[in-house]
Structure formats: C-alpha cells, structure tokens
Amino acid sequence: MSIYDSLNQSQKEAVFKTEGPLLVLAGAGSGKTRVLTHRVAYLIEEKGVNPWNIMAITFTNKAAGEMRERVDKLVSFGAESIWVSTFHSSCVRILRRHIESLGYSTNFTIYDTDDQRTLMKQVFKTLDIDPKLYKERVILGQISSAKDLLISPAQFELEAGGDFRQKKIAAIYKEYQDQLKKNNALDFDDLIVKTVELLENNQDVKEYYQERFRYVMVDEYQDTNYAQFRLVSLLAGKYKNLCVVGDDDQSIYKFRGADIENILNFEKLFPGAEVIKLEQNYRSTQNILNAANEVIRHNRGRKDKTLWTANEEGDLVRFRQYDQAGEEAEAIARDISARGGEYRETAVLYRTNAQSRLLEEECIACNIPYRMVGGVNFYQRKEIKDILAYLKTIANGQDDLSVLRVINVPKRGIGATSVGKVAAFASEHGLSMYQAFSRVKAVPSIGKAADKIQGFVDLIEGFRSRMEEDDTYTIKALIEDVMEFTGYKKELEAEGEIEAQTRLENIEELINKAVSYTNESQDPSLGEFLEEVALVADVDRMDDSEERVTLMTLHSAKGLEFNYVYLSGMEDGLFPSMMAIMSDDKEAVEEERRLCYVGITRAKKQLMMTGARQRMVNGETRYSKVSRFIEEIPETLLDVEKLEPRLSRSSGGEGGNWSNSNSWSAGKAASGGFGVKSSAYASKTSSFSSGAAPGFGKTFTVSKPAALDYKEGDRVRHIKFGEGTVKKIQDGAKDFEVTVEFDTAGVKKMFASFAKLKKLT
C-alpha cells in the first residue's frame, strides 16, 4: 500500500502538484502538515528531486522540529539534507556564509530584546534624546515595524516629510543601525532584512540559492509579513516552484506585522498559481464546524471555503449568558467539575489576559488543577505584584521584600548603592528597611539620594494617613491613587504599546477584585484584602500532575486542539473588542472574527460559549450585548439554556430597547441576525431600559419592584450564597437594599432586583 493512499483527494492533488506556484488553502484541522511532509517525500521518491534542492520554512522551532521528525520517518534517504527550519534560522545560515559582502563579519552577534534596549539607551545618550518624550520600547517597536516593511532609515526619513517627531525617530533609527553595524550585530528583524538585501544586491548569491532551493515550501503563510514575502519570492524567483500552505481565516497576528494580503493576493503576485482547498476537517464534529463556517462567512476579505467532516454530527454548540462575569467563571468551573475528569483535554479560552483572574480563582475554589499558557498566573504578573507590593508597604512597613520591590518602581533615581547603604544602616540598628528609609537623613554618606528616598516615604505615609482618617476611602481609590501619584500609570501609558495596555487592563482587573471584596465583606480592610489575595494566589496547593485544565488567550490557542473548549467573554466590547468596533479600519472586526473562528475550531467534541451581561471594568459595572459572533450562529446549531425572565429586543437593529418577553427572535430576525427560538437568551435579571453608554454601547437602569415577597426575619435562598435570614430591608431611591445573614457565606448587602432572593416556606 502506498503512503499516499491514506490521503484524501484534495490532499493528493496538493502533494502531486509539484511544478509552479501553488497555494494550499488548508482549513483548520485539515491535515496541512501531513500534506507538506508527504509532498517532500513525493518530490524525492517519485519525482527524483535531490533532497538538498528542497526547502521547507515555518515560523516556530517547535513546528520545524515536528516537521523534521515526520519528514525523517517518511523519507528513507537524504532527509538530513532537506532544509527544514524557521525563517530566522534559514537566514542565519545564509548570512553566516555571505554577510561579508554587506560589510559585516560572519561571526556577527544576534541581539535579543534586552540587548536591543541596552543599545537603544546608548543611542539616546549619543543623540541626547529625552526619554520622557521618546520611549525606548516604543521607538524599538516603530523600527521593527519599519523593518517588516523593508523601510530603511533613509526611506523612513524621506517619508517623515515635515513631521518633526518622525524625523527625530528616523535619526534614532539611523544611529541604531550604525551602532549595530559598529558592534557587528544584527537584531532579529535584521536577519530577514539583511538576507533580502543580500539576495537583491548580490547576483551570484541569489543565483546560488535559487539553484540550491528549486522547491520552496512555506507553512502558515497567512502569518508572513512583507519582508518574509519578499524573501521567499527571491528564493523561488527562478524556478517558480513555490508552495505556500495557510488559512486566511486564521490570520490573527496583524499586531505582529502579519499581512493577510500576502495570501489573499497570491494568484496576482504569482501569475499562473493554482489554488487547492483542503476543506475536510479531521478534528471536530460537524455541528462545531457548521458554527465556525457561519461565523467566518461574514468576513468579506477572505477566500471562500467550507469545512466539513466525516466525523459524527455531535452535540449542539452550547451558549450560556450569565448576569455577572463572576457567575460565568463559576459556571464554567462547575461544568468542568461535573464532567469529573479529562482535564488535559479541556481548555478555557478568553480574549484578554485580565479575564483569567476570575477563572483562576474559580478553578482553585473547585480544586481544579490548571495551567496557564501564553502568560503567567494573574497574581504573579509583574504589574500586579508591583501594585500589591505598594499596598503591603502601606499596610505593613515590616515587609522588606515589598518595600525593596517598589522603592525605585517607577524609577526615582534611587540606585542600588544607595539602597545598600540604607540596608547596612538597617542591619546595624535592627530596623526594617522601611524604618531605615524613614530615617534616611541619619544614614552616613547617603548624599542626594536622601531627598528621593524621603519623597517615597512621604508618599507612603500620605496613603496611610488617608486610610486611617477617611472611612470612605476605599481600596479601589487607594489603588487608583497609587497608580496616579507614584507615576506608575503615566509610565505605562507613555509606552503606548499593546503590552503596556494589557498591563493596565490587568491592574483594572485587580481593582475589580478590590471592589468585589469590598462589596462582599462585612468590615472591609486593606489587611484582610491582602490576606484574601494571598490565599487565592497560593497555587502551590494545586495538584502537580499533568492532568490539568488549560487556561489561555485565544491568540495562544492557535494550532492546538482539545476535546472540550469553553470560549468565554462573548460580549460586544470585549469580543470583538471595543477598540476594533470603534476603529476606522474596517478590517479590525474581521480580524477579531478570525480569532473567534480559531477559538471555535479548537474544539473536537464539545464547545461551550459564554458571556455576561455585567462585567466589572476598572471597578465600575459595565453592561454589554451578546457578542455579534454569537448572533451570527443560526439557532439550529445552538443549545441555549432557558432561564426566566428572558430579555427581548423589542425593535430590530443595534439600537433596540430591551424588555421582558417570551421571545428574542423578532428583533434579531429583523436585523438579519440571531433569530433564536423562544428559549434563547434568558436572563436572571429584572428588565432594563437603554441609555447612553460609557464605553460599551449601553447603560441600564434597574426597574424597582413595587414590593418584596419577603420581610425582615424571613428565611430566603440565594442562587450563589444559599440559605439565610433577612436582617434589614432599606427602601432606596432606585431599588430595595437587602441585608442577609447567610448560613455559610456570612452577611451580604445587595440590591433586591439583582439578588433574586426566594422566600423559604
């Protein structure tokens, strides 16, 4: 039996089509790596191509390693001569041999991110650049973007025109490149740029590699940038035997420079190109694939294909909408627990890192072992540890580790030498570090650092005084003040990068935690809050086995698969993000939709999509609609739990009012959207009316009930806190405020409309 007999018809066509440009549109789970490796085998064993005439490029070392391993198993002779490597590794091999023609030595150094930042500091000093006006990381990001587009310093300056700031950045770019060359060094972007430059400017080198690599194959082609496109174009320029494999529907890395136009315009860029679609999916059930197909077909900038499978039809996609984000996380954890195992085959996916906090806490509460992928545990993130260190210092100056962590964060010009002198003084006099900092004027030879250290102490003492003297001063307000008066927030905002924005979102989530704690605690205090956080953050108690649930962002999930997938935060404003919704770039929401498609197609057996009507953002409750991506899935593919009362959109389109109803279908049908059956989108809340939105498109007000069916002293039940006794009912302007002493959860104060308390008879 031939090894090719195991391939389906489309896979065979892709393997056997060896001459000329070829685009293999490989849908999710369609066996693209199998096609690439079998194509290599076919070229060698059936077409008689020399192994050293084949080049296979991918993006990650892991992917290259897996491809190499599978090629070695298929190809009996000469497999070691095939170039199977990443873009960067391939370029290093070429440059090590030929870079002297560009004025570098072949023993050049490759600078990592830290090296780049160190070099940029030197550039700033050389050009007398004010780091307050030009942030090193921001400039490095702009230079990287320029290199992705093969824009040289000279071209950058030319395009800057009369823009003073851009011209200054052009000067920094030029000096940065000059310093790199002086040091005989390249950064990662240069590995691609310099290889392109080498091939464009040295005819002999170009011809050598065009002869060497008569067959070029590129995996994950939808993730290539312009520089990478130019590189493969040059390598395949003579024989035109370029095979690229990718899926435009999974192009989700625009923020890293990926250009979807490379795959969308492949036939234009390479005349005579053939396109073969791999649409049979070997991973998921048909219902999951149908949902994915329905969502992604709403994108205009794509090549048409429809995934199908010979697998079973499978369960409907479940959708659950909860009142609050905490309830959403709790429900996901309960659902995972109820299954009683298969943790390693379970993944919870989310759009932003900040969403992980609630999920982590619920996993710990339910004793579910988990691991974070593509990030660190919420309470272990640098920005969270920084802010908590400030809070610990304010609450307890005896914690030397916390004090030392923030004494120079953000930078105050307090160096290690000065801190060392204070440490020696503290040791000599039996003081904590904070006590020693408080007496800094007594530290011998401390010099000018004394005033800077005293400024830090005054700041901490100011926070302490406010906490002690003002009963209305909340932990939320304290965190916001720490962010403001220390300059921590300003420093993050000045960076202007996606990473910095993510850090700010994480701190907002810490504020959400503080607000939740304050609302649920009978006598909230900073010390108790820090104690609660410490207990939640203690994940060392978790099971060390590999049988763990995976928590990860959607971007991190690409290329992975799980039997059970939970796709959380399905709300407009969160997913798709408000930034995408409000963007002038129409492609922004399309990229978010591709990200949703990636998330859906990670699931093999079961998919549960969840959302919340209320989500706390920076300590404030925001209300949002169901994600438009849910609305794009037909009702016949969804299992939507019935809860009472339900919410209904009384008029079609985006701006309809919400009211209690027996059906949500009329309004959606009018707008061509969800059209869900009468069981859809049930709500546990009372009715809302729409208004102006602070950031999420809708604001809601509670409809106060005329009366309550319970009174003080009655026994009641709460869906989360269980049974308890009503201690107090206060008639507020907008709603009744009810205080209940629960048997296990303690005393809670809540609004009647949200509490949904049931009187026990």
Question: Which characteristics define this entry?
Answer:
alpha/beta, 44% helix, 8-stranded mixed β-sheet, 17% strand, 761 residues, 6-stranded parallel β-sheet, 31 helices
Helix and strand topology:
Elements: H1 9-16, E1 22-26, H2 32-45, E2 54-58, H3 61-74, E3 83-86, H4 87-98, E4 109-111, H5 113-127, H6 136-148, H7 153-160, H8 164-182, E5 185-187, H9 188-201, H10 203-212, E6 215-218, H11 226-235, E7 242-246, H12 261-264, H13 266-269, E8 274-278, H14 286-296, E9 317-324, H15 325-339, E10 346-350, H16 356-365, E11 370-373, H17 382-395, H18 400-406, H19 416-429, H20 433-438, H21 449-469, H22 475-485, H23 488-495, H24 498-520, H25 526-537, E12 549-553, H26 554-557, E13 562-567, H27 578-582, H28 587-600, E14 603-617, E15 620-623, H29 628-631, E16 638-640, E17 646-649, E18 658-661, H30 665-670, E19 688-690, E20 700-702, E21 715-718, E22 722-731, E23 736-742, E24 746-751, H31 752-755, E25 758-759
Parallel strand pairs: 1-7, 1-8, 2-3, 2-6, 4-5, 6-7, 9-14, 9-16, 10-12, 10-13, 11-12, 13-14
Antiparallel strand pairs: 14-15, 17-18, 19-20, 21-22, 21-25, 22-23, 23-24
Helix pairs in contact: 1-2, 2-3, 4-9, 5-8, 7-8, 9-11, 14-28, 15-16, 17-18, 17-21, 22-24, 23-24
Structure description:
This protein has 761 residues and is an alpha/beta fold. The strands form six sheets. Strands 9, 10, 11, 12, 13, 14, 15 and 16 form an eight-stranded mixed sheet that branches. The protein has a six-stranded parallel sheet with strand order 3-2-6-7-1-8, sandwiched between helices. A five-stranded antiparallel sheet has the order 24-23-22-21-25. Strand 23 and strand 24 form a beta hairpin. Mean pLDDT is 83; it is low at 538-545 and 643-702.
